[in-house]
Amino acid sequence: MSLRHALLGLLAHGPASGYDLTRAFEGGIGQYAWQAGHSRIYPELGKMTEAGLVVVDEAGPRGRKTYTLTDDGRTELRRWMLHWPEQATVRNETVLRMFLVQSLEPDDARALLEGMAEHCARERDALRAVMDADDAEHRPGDPLPFGRLAGEYGIRQYEAVQGWAQWSLERLAAGEPVR
Amino acid sequence: MSLRHALLGLLAHGPASGYDLTRAFEGGIGQYAWQAGHSRIYPELGKMTEAGLVVVDEAGPRGRKTYTLTDDGRTELRRWMLHWPEQATVRNETVLRMFLVQSLEPDDARALLEGMAEHCARERDALRAVMDADDAEHRPGDPLPFGRLAGEYGIRQYEAVQGWAQWSLERLAAGEPVR
DNA sequence: CCTTTACCTGTCAATCTGGACATGTCAATA
DNA sequence: TATTGACATGTCCAGATTGACAGGTAAAGG
Asked: Has residue B138 been placed in a domain?
């Protein structure tokens, strides 16, 4: 049910269409937090309208429908944000590979870990560059591809994984048990 | 299709039953990487048997079926581990909340971030304790609730999120724009 | 011996998801 | 004026996923 809350959260800082929201999921949120395509977003917006969490301003060119958060929607978003469950939904292919490194032969494990460390270093630098560019040319009012907080999280995330991969490589090199 | 690879990976270090695998998902892998219940695991093991990735040793008390990786299974696991796609599947409720902090009123945001920082500190300590206990009383041969590498990742993950939350709180306190 | 507690395997219905299919509009440029 | 590309909304289906339902076995303790 988190797609609903992702949409509520995105709508919290201003009205948007299904199309706008779809593009939002192509950015940071879809890369780090939650993925969704338009084929799931449109039906969900329909259900949310029925549930009274959002309303449609039926206006705009090309049949564009703009959705706005209702008070109920904002309340529900706040409720969800503030009480997190014991066991949160997690599904991450990269972390899954990290957990299964032990299933590889040492040479393969080394290759995988080295690849991961390099990949993280590259992505980290790229993200940093995007954020610095934003800082420079950003005019108040226009939307950021990355929120500041989200970007900072991304950077720390890459650094954590890179650090972990390097630590693991050292363990491997030292011949210590990987299990 | 990652459930399949998770199962292949878990089977890589020795034969196991559907029941064993179900319990494995209740541990670290289910908390940090990928979730699955027995109702999904049993059918998938069936399909994997059909596909020749695993074989069943139909033996054991209480109708227990033990699955063993075939050469094809090991090859497929290696292939999947070593070539990762551009865009990996990601779904993480906690990170989603992190991305949506900006949608809250400052007071609520502060409460959320403080809660997250505390939670991470607690979980980190608990995880460290579990790992130290394992180191102490672990006898070669019996399974670890946490692999060393996985545990280390968990700790670094908690530290990264905690650090991020604290950094965000400082920004918030300084009155800097959160967006 | 009896009862409880794991152990152990499955199915089913409802919902969620991702990719493909389908349709049409507006703006810019060649 | 024709065409392309971005804007914009939707449906459909196969497969994934979850939680509930269902049933049976061995071991251990009282």
From this structure: yes
* Interface mutation vs chain B, best among A13, A86, A99, most B CBs within 10 Å: A99
CATH label of the domain that carries residue B31: 1.10.10.10
User: Could you read off the pLDDT of A10-43 as tens digits, one per residue?
Assistant: 999 899 999 999 999 998 899 999 999 999 999 9
Q: Do B73 and B103 have their domain in common? A: no
For A15, which DSSP code? Answer: -
Instruction: Give the chain A residue whose CA is nearest to the CA of B113.
Output: A82
Q: Is residue B87 part of a domain?
A: no
Nucleotide D19 C1' to residue A28 CA (A): 32
Whether residue B72 is found in the same domain as residue B52:
yes
Distance from CA of B11 to the nearest CA of A (A): 9
- As a whole number of angstroms, the distance between CA A33 and CA A54 comes to 22
Task: Name the pTM for this structure.
Answer: 0.91
Angstrom CA distances, A67 to A14, A50, A70, B36, B117, stand at 9, 12, 9, 35, 33
Q: Alpha-carbon distance A51 to A99, whole Å?
A: 40
One domain, residues A33 and A104: no
Domain of B33 in residue numbering reads as 3-82
